[in-house]
Amino acid sequence: MAGEIGRKTEHWGSRFGFIMASVGSAVGLGNFWRFPYTAGENGGGAFILFYIICVLLIGLPLLMAEYAMGRKSGMSAIEGIQSLARAESRSQNWGVAGWVGSLTSFFILSFYMVISTWLMAFLIQSFGGFEGMDAASSGQNFVDTIGQGEHPMRSKWYMLGLLAVFLVANIIIVGRGVKGGIEKAATLLMPAFFIMLLVVVGFSIANGDTGKAVSFIFEPKWEDVGFKTFLAALGQAFFSLSIGVGLMITYGAYLEPDTNIPRSSGLIVASDTLVALIAGFAIFPIVFSAGLDPSSGPSLFFISMPVAFGSIPGGAIIAPVFFGLALFAAFTSSISLMEVAVSWLEERQGVTRLGASIGVGYVLFMIGAAYVFSLEYLDFMDFMTEGLLLPLGGLLASYFAGWVLSREMLTSELGEGTIMNAWRFLIRWFVPPFIFLILVFGFMDKIQDQYHVPLPGFLTMLLGPNWVPPAG
Ligand code: PHE
């Protein structure tokens, strides 16, 4: 089949549209749902510090590499990497770098759609207000809503209906193509999103406990820091920037030749990081003013926020805005996740874009129907993707870009000069080794932490005092 697949012919309609689509992909549940609780669990300011380091020194170079590889090859991740390997007379097996990423994006979407569905349910609920909720009743409300509580069957059909609505919306947008679907949706939704975000942050700072939020965000709790903190920060950076899954390679394939990749990448990274921090200022003041604990894990968003909205004056008005803006952000990310598979199917299997979208949506619905009510699946997938597959995908892609591809290969995309020199230095000597180290030690630290698996002695020494020897 080699050589039969051509370059993509579709392009982004404008640079603004491309930036909106990319920011739309990057800004999502990662910023609202995942970032705050991950920071809460991993030492607050210390985590945020590592996070910013990971974003700048690993995320930015990798994002540039993905766009460059995408535009150079003009194809989606798997085919694109294979064609670049061919051009350098290297093994086709490098395609595995694309495969890992593409599968990861599918796994992510398989739980992303479920959390988005919860978001829809909470948005609908928020119109009725959350008055009088305490943590216990909110917890009960959460399990009832997602179909695990007292009336699981009733809410199961409801949730499956919402899931179907969400997927159909994805199919429609992705099916309409890059310019007419994804770009258009992002250029409409993202500006609305930013306005809503400012409204919520303004409200939150004015009415919440901002002092506590500031000290939480900026004061590092070093005692909570371990190797798994680095892994958490790295995984979060990849997740939030939508890198390591081949998506940005695919988005790069639709780029016009005159779009400046380094500059656009910088803008996208800056916007995503800013939104994560601003989201922190939207969420933490409210959480603290309601006397809740920010380290309560994935449920922070769905259990704490309703309680907080129920207790704060004006909360009834701001709650729908809050869940609405999170849903906008989640939707522009899920369409991008779906695009990875659709764009590959379209170029490889000769199906139409709409056909491919319907097929992918159907498979997702079946997966969703089987586990939509299993929090264990979500936990496991979240851990597998952020803790293992995303860093692995990033490791392979950065190694490929830095060591397999020649410098000349990407000068047409990244130019020559200081930026190229810095990029090439980082992508060869910093990014792959750093990801590798964090991955190995962080993964072991985390496994040990969660499952109390015994580790070899020398690792115990390296992992430091936090490590507790297994009993027996
Ligand atoms: N970046 C998205 C978020 O933060 C999630 C995502 C990951 C989207 C990978 C696309 C690819 O929610």
UniProtKB/TrEMBL annotation:
Localization in the cell: Membrane
In terms of Pfam families, this protein maps to: SNF
Q: Which GO terms describe its cellular component?
A: membrane
Keyword annotations: Membrane, Symport, Transmembrane, Transmembrane helix, Transport
Membrane topology according to the record: Multi-pass membrane protein
State the PROSITE patterns in the record. NA_NEUROTRAN_SYMP_1, NA_NEUROTRAN_SYMP_3
Q: Which InterPro entries match?
A: Na/ntran_symport (IPR000175), SNS_sf (IPR037272), YocR/YhdH-like (IPR047218)
Superkingdom of source: Bacteria
Q: Name one GO molecular function term.
A: symporter activity
PANTHER family in alphabetical order: TRANSPORTER (PTHR42948)
- What protein family is recorded? Belongs to the sodium:neurotransmitter symporter (SNF) (TC 2.A.22) family.
Q: Which NCBIfam families match?
A: Na_transp
Please report the name of this protein according to its UniProt entry: Transporter
Organism, as annotated: Hyphomonas pacifica
